Amino acid sequence: MADEGKKLIIDEGWKEQAQREKETLAAKEEKEKEKQAAEEGDAGGPLPPGSFATLVSMLTTQALFAMGLIRVRGEDPHEPDMEMARYNIDMLEMLSEKTKGNLTPEEQQMLKNTLSDLRMGFVSVANQLGTQEQG
Q: How does pLDDT run across 63-107, given as a tens digit for each residue?
């Protein structure tokens, strides 16, 4: 009857400790993911607020890039894509028509000047391409 004095002791604390360790590891992984996302996001800088000027700027940049007047740093120059340039200019013209009477004077002037500059650039690039083809 010596066995009667012996008791089986089950340590339930290990389950709690394992759960705490699991939560700690999950928290560390989450912090690492957030840190990595922040580092990747910082590389390009914050996005500008959405605005009419930003939309015009995006379409203008696309048109200038298509005409070959701007390029990505480190990349070789590419042949102008005049069809894509015309498309982006046409989008800005449509935007001008659809927003008539709803823009501030500054927005209207910016859009007018941008379209004028893009049209002159388009004609200039088209003339250069025509001269190169003839020569």
A: 999 999 988 888 888 899 999 999 999 999 999 999 999 999 999
Cα–Cα distance for residue pair 94/56, rounded to 1 Å = 11
Distance (Å, whole) CA 21 – CA 118: 61
Where are the domains positioned within the chain? Answer: 13-44, 52-134
Full DSSP string of 34-46 = HHHHHHHHHHH-P
For residue 77, give Cα distances in angstroms to 29, 30, 69, 72: 43, 42, 9, 9
User: In Å, how far are 2, 3, 13, 86 from 7, measured between CA atoms?
Assistant: 11, 8, 18, 88
Cα 86 from Cα 115, distance rounded (Å): 11
